Amino acid sequence: MEIIDEKVRKKWKNYLWQSAIAGLSIAVILVFFASIVGLVIVAAVGATSFTVFTIPNHKTARARSVFGGQAIGAIVGLICSTFFLDPIRGGAGVSLAALLMVTLNAEHPPAAGTALGLSIDPSLEGALFVPAASGILSLTGFLLSEYLKDLT
Question: Is residue 94 part of a domain?
Fold first, then answer.
């Protein structure tokens, strides 16, 4: 077993610039929104950035999955924060978001983090931020799709 992925030698430029664009995208988004969202929500969007820019051809990186999954996670998180008690609201959020994402063919694993975060620490601003930021990331990924390669 190798420690460094064997594809790095052939795709090293992609590894560097795609990782850089993932971080740069988040930095730009945070310039505008950092003061209104919680850290858990920012982490979920960071995971979305990873998905969009490092595995762009994967099903979970499609715009439907990114935007739809994050919208589901945000809505479910807010609902669970209202209707469930503290000890179970986070688990209920992840469970219900997972069920809806797979049922609606909008699977996006980082959105489970969104559901968890908003279940525990509800915020309308956060719920609006996540789909907006995910849309920006999806659009950026679409505009760069000709140049993005799967790094897995």
Answer: yes
Render pLDDT for 88-135 as a digit per residue (tens, 0 to 9). 999 999 999 999 999 999 999 999 999 999 999 999 999 999 999 999
Q: Is residue 1 part of a domain?
A: no
Structural domain harbouring 134: 9-143
> Are 61 and 151 spatial neighbours (Cβ–Cβ below 8 Å)?
no
Q: In angstroms, rounded to a whole number, what is the distance separating the alpha carbons of residues 90 and 35?
A: 24
The answer as to whether 13 is a domain residue is yes
Dihedral sign, Cα of residue 72, residue 78, residue 83, residue 88: positive
Cβ burial of 4 (10 Å; 0-12, 13-18, 19+) is: exposed
Query: DSSP character for 121?
Result: S
Q: What single-letter amino acid sits at 71?
A: A
Classify residue 144 as exposed, middle or buried by CB count within 10 Å of its CB (0-12, 13-18, 19+): middle
